[in-house]
Amino acid sequence: MFTKSIKNSLLFLSIFLLVACGGGSTSIASPGELGSLSDPSGGGGGNGGTNSNVLTGTCPDSEFVQIGSPVAGNNVCAIQGPITGELTLTDDVMYRMLGKVDIGIDMGGDGTKAGGASGTLIIPAGVVIMGRTSNDYLVVNRGSKIIANGTRSAPIRFTHNTAIEGTVTDNERGLWGGIVILGKAPINKCSNDVRGTAACERVVEGSDALMGGATPDDDSGKLNFVRVEYAGYEIFPGNELNGITFGGVGSGTIVDYVQVHNNQDDCVEFFGGTVNVKHLICTGAGDDNLDIDWGYQGKMQFVVVKQSSGVGDHIVESDNTNSDSSVGYLTEPRSRPMVANFTFISQGLDEPLKYKEGVSGIYINGVVVNVNEQNLIEATNLETIQDGALTPKIQHHSIFMDSAGDTSPFKYSEPDSDIAAVTVAELEASLTSRATDLVLGTNTLVSGMFLGDAESAVVSAFNGDKVQGMCAVGPHAAGTTTDLCPTYSSKEGRYIVDTWFSATDYIGAFSPGSDIENNWASGWTIGLFEAPECPEGTLESEVLLGKKVCSLTGEVTSDLTLVAGNYYKLDGKVAIGKDMGADGTKSGGVSAKLTIEPGVTVFGESGNDYLVVMRGSDIHAVGTSSAPIIMTGRQDILGEADIVNTRGLWGGLVILGQAPINKCSFSTQGSATSAGTRVDPCEKEVEGSAGDTMGGELPNDSSGSLKYVRVQYAGYEVFPGNELNGITFGGVGNGTVVDYIQVHNNQDDC
Predict the structure, then answer these.
(1) Does residue 599 lie in a domain region?
(2) Number of structural domains, the chain?
(3) CA distances to 1, 159, 723, 740 from 748, in Å
(4) 57 is a domain residue
(5) Cβ–Cβ contacts within 10 Å for residue 435, how many?
(6) What mean pLDDT, rounded, does the chain reach?
(7) What pTM was computed for the model?
(8) Looking at residues 665-677, what average pLDDT do you find?
(9) Residue-by-residue DSSP string for 629-676
């Protein structure tokens, strides 16, 4: 009796050609913001695309460049400022900064300042620029530009020489200064008589340079695939260099695919301005991560923050300005970051989100996980819960929050004595009144970062009617446009969200199906995804193509999870559990469960290597369309398999259950004409796996789940007429879920 459920199965007997990538390997392109390139070391845990070749080129011919001392065998050129005109670096040497390196000389808030001069620094892909001391940092002044155009495989690195020498440790911070970019976009930190004009300017934190102006679309250049490592420096308490400081930077500036790793102070800080950012990663910051000040009104999407354990303060610390005598904390332009598709992993010392001093903002499609037992949101000041004349108060839409078991996400700080008092109840009512789909629960993130069932259940605020609900929130009249929703169709009665945002159908920074190897952060970042250890019950046996190989052998008698990021080798026959018999009561039987995470590859290297799930045990192998689980042979991983002709590289998958079969012995009692009676229970040794038994009397028996699983290049002849199939289902019950399965190029049956 064949009682297992199979739907949508891709059980092709013909050859099914997917996208061929080097020999027999196949890859499935991922949707949305997943990205199609992967880092063989697991992405975000290795060298992030660093070129390991020694660079022996010569320095560019420029008055701003001189020959420096080699580092780790690489030729080094020293850069000094102020750089005026245009300087283009080459990618055949490394560079170091000599103290503060100015790009250009400040041209003022309107570009006409006496003595000002424009400069442009052009940095090609793969270039490394080092600081050696805390006095080494880069400043792009108003009216000047930085063009740093890296790639996924060759990111631009701003780092310390010890990172190149290989002596930097995981906990190092503050080894050099950082990057400061200054523009002519508006800020609010100035007196009322000049606010909103080019004369509204301010000295930036960490430097003596000026920022601000009246040009919202000001262009300070481009940062693309740029990594800033081990920077940050305290000049004096409260005045520190961040990883990247954006001071009055305008929306004409392009910032996309940027990481700041292990900065001593904030990851990034925005002092006013309107610059927009996509694909931003902050890891290991010593203070805050997204620090918002002085009227910043930019947009961000696809933002990842991961704090180091016990290090750092808030993930978001957002404020408007110190109180102005005439307008208080509601000074315009009011800080109003619009942040969409973020994943915040809080392991620091304070609440993940802190809103203060009259700040506004809109937070959309987020995941916030607080590992420690703090609250999730801290808010202060009366103005923080008030709508301003031009800018309404904070909103939250489609956000999943995990507060490590705390029943309330909110904390309301008591105001200082000189600040207008507000009650806890008023603060809570304010935040919740401007929220849609704010979900509190226990996270189910895969590998601590990627969407699980709980997060996937939260509907994106960009989806259909959710958009209308989100755009309607606020003090404005129905049909009135806003910064977030600048278009309204009177005919259709519908809002349209700012088209700068990608209209994702998911929350969080990574699209469904992303895993450690397949996501937009893989291949160019560091410190984001920790290389997993081989799980207990396996043995680390080798490194294959930069990844650990964890071997399984013999009988697995306790639950085992094969986590993404490693390869898993079958060493001979691997049995999950010990046979529990037809009714689950067999003496000596042991039940075990094998869980395989999306994107995992399991391989064998001979026909003797195969996997058997015994009666009474389970396999839970649930992949995704973009991260299927693959069971294959070593030659396939090495790119040595022929997608058309290769077969029989390893054994296969055998699943045994307690559902009825009819191939068993009969009793001969009765008349000579009687057909006899089938022996109860009806069980039989399965083909291909000697001594292993299938069958029972449980039609709805469950042996687990197989979903998005690909079995390829398997099959083995034990002896003529007794061979291992791609997948053997022996007495498997209809409680077993089998959906989206492919068996490719099996030696015996599919």
Answers:
(1) yes
(2) 1
(3) 22, 55, 7, 21
(4) no
(5) 17
(6) 85
(7) 0.73
(8) 53
(9) EEEEEHHHHTT---TTT---SS--EEEE-SS--S-S-EE--S-TT---
